[in-house]
Amino acid sequence: MVWSKLRGLLALGCVPFAVFACVMDSTSSGGSSVSAGGGAVGTPTETGPSGDGAPSAHPMNVVIDTNQTMNVKAGLGVGVFVEYDSGGNWNVWWTCDTTVDPTNPACAFDVKVTAQTGAIENVASQSLGTGDTVTQPTTSSLEAITSTTTGNPGFTFSTTPGAEILLDATVGGQHDGAFIFWVQDGVVDDGYQGTPTDPIYMQGSTP
Questions:
Q1: What CATH number does residue 192 fall under?
Q2: What pLDDT score was predicted for residue 72?
Q3: Which range marks the domain in which residue 74 is found?
Q4: Residue 177: closest CA among 188, 187, 164, 168
Q5: How do strand 61-64 and strand 200-204 relate by DSSP bridges?
């Protein structure tokens, strides 16, 4: 199956976790030609999966702009979006492409988050469908399994302020960092030219 990636549909907002956020930019990721504005933290040892759907052996580290949001209409492309708000508050959500390609079945997401220090607390699911689940296998990890069509399911949670997380996300059982989005240096995915790794380490720019 070929999933439709988001192209020109992703906008940045200026209000943390707001339903209505003012639009700053409409730069897209997943092959964007926008130049990087500072680069990821550390040097990735690979540019993402080899195309076989396997997880990246050496996850890269990226910094997420604190108190920045992204906005996209559900159903217009496949993506997993990660936002960080000051105080250790995270918002992770995802979308499928069933509106632009009705022939595609629902996207089978398996999204896992593991805090690298401390515990994950204050877990709240959002927009889950029938049969979708969010579980906490350990005090430092979360896992969501959803069958997503035109919704935007996800979860919010909190960690120790400044803690790094590891995000591991699959669609249809396949790892592909091209579907992972964050805001860095005011640009989606920092204008990263290659394919981000999946899994990937993430940390807020300020605690």
A1: 2.60.40
A2: 87
A3: 11-30+61-204
A4: 168
A5: parallel
